[in-house]
Structure formats: structure tokens, C-alpha cells
């Protein structure tokens, strides 16, 4: 399924590189790995800190025969693929935080950033960026604006090359079958790993704030909040535990 694997010592952002590399009709999977990113991108315009040899910076480009609607829930399915890759190395306490963070012991271990390219109506290309902390030095900690976990601390000794291979091994079949299966095939797995299930949470979406009890995700990957007995679906925003 993988047509090309490109390795960089340093790059601005593996997502940015792949977006510019992927051309119309270039066929599907291309992957980029970099030891370091000088301008790693996070969700919502944030930076992603990725110093030299301090984790995994991986982007996978894939072309879908179908409009952007067939990507519904994909970023959550990617979270499941990452959890499965970590499970191959028996990494303990892996959970998912909606929409697509991978947490370990209450802190963020990995993040996913999807970026789209193409006309998005009947064909679209997606770049899936995965950043995972492993071997981050404390000197970097001050630059990260949220509690973070590090794979080396949770489960030392996992070779990064093997982890990168496991990520690709889990992710590529998900992409290959996604237009056919959709998020429905991953929903149960996602719900079993849900960090916030049954917890009182606050959802910040734009300049609005919603409060409710996290009640899993829909077949389309929307967050379900139980708000005084009414189940409401949300398609965007950031959740946090109530009071934090
Ligand atoms: C998030 O904010 O949680 C998403 C972080 C995604 C970071 C990865 S690292 C590889 C790829 N290249 C980027 O510039 N960003 C993604």
C-alpha cells in the first residue's frame, strides 16, 4: 500500500512538505518521516514541538476516490490505528481524547493533524500528520502549553523505527478501506478507549461553551454530550474536564 517513504533529517513540517509534494494523480500512499521539524504544525494553528530525535513526526498522504464527506470521522479512526500500533508494544494506559488526541495516564502522548488538498467534490487527497513524543528533553517542556506524556518514560526501549513501521502497518489498511467502511468500523474500538466517557466535560467551540456528560461518539465521529438528558452531537471544538 505504501508507494514511497521519504526520510528527512530536518524539515519545516512533514505535513507541509507532503502537501506540496502530492500532485494530482500521483497515486496513493506516500509517507514522510523527519528527525526534526523546525515549524511543526498542531491543530488550530498551534505549534507542534519536535526537536531532534525526540519522537515521531510522520505524515502520510492518501488519495480518496470520493468527496470530502467520505473522510467523516477519519481523524478518530487514525487515533484507533495509533492506539493499535502502541498496543503491539504493550504500551499501557493508552486512551483517546476526542477528536484525535492520544493520551497516556492523563496526558497527551500524540496528536493528529489532517490537512486536505484537491477539489474535495469527487476526489480528494488528505495528509495525515502524526506527532508522538518519545525522548523529549525537559528543556523542551517549557515550550509545550499542555500536560504531555513521553513514550520513553512510559515504556522505555521501543525502537522508533519499529514504532514508525507499526504506525504505517496499522494506518494504511484503515485508509485503504475507509471509503467502504467509514468510521462505523472503528466506533466501538474508539469508545472502548474513550478517556472522558461518563465524565462531566466542557466543550469550547468557537466562542461558545457547552457543558455536559461525555457520552461517546456518533457513527459520523461527532462528540455526544448528555445535556440534562438530551443527547446533542458536536462536530468541532475542544473538550476538557469540568473545572480544569
Ligand atoms: C495536534 O495539535 O495535536 C496535532 C499535532 C500533529 C503534529 C504532527 S508531527 C507530523 C506532522 N507534521 C506537522 O507539521 N504536524 C504533524
What does this structure look like?
The chain is an alpha+beta fold and 244 residues long. It has two domains: 2-192, BirA Bifunctional Protein, domain 2 (2-Layer Sandwich), CATH 3.30.930; 200-241, SH3 type barrels (Roll), CATH 2.30.30.100. Helix content is 23%, strand content 36%. The protein is built from seven helices and twelve strands. α2 crosses α5 (160-176). The longest helix is centred in the last third of the chain and has 17 residues, at 160-176. The structure holds biotin. Biotin binds at residues 13-15, 37, 40-43, 46, 48, 50, 57-59, 101, 111-113, 129-131. Biotin binds at residues 13-15, 37, 41-43, 108.
Largest beta sheet: what is the strand line-up? 1-2-3-7-6-5-4
Q: Report the CATH topology name of the largest domain.
A: BirA Bifunctional Protein, domain 2
- Count of structural domains: 2
Task: Tell me the number of helical segments per DSSP (H or I, 4 or more residues long).
Answer: 7
Kindly state the percentage of residues in helix: 10-25%
- Detail the poorly predicted runs: none
- Using the CA coordinates, give the radius of gyration: 17 Å
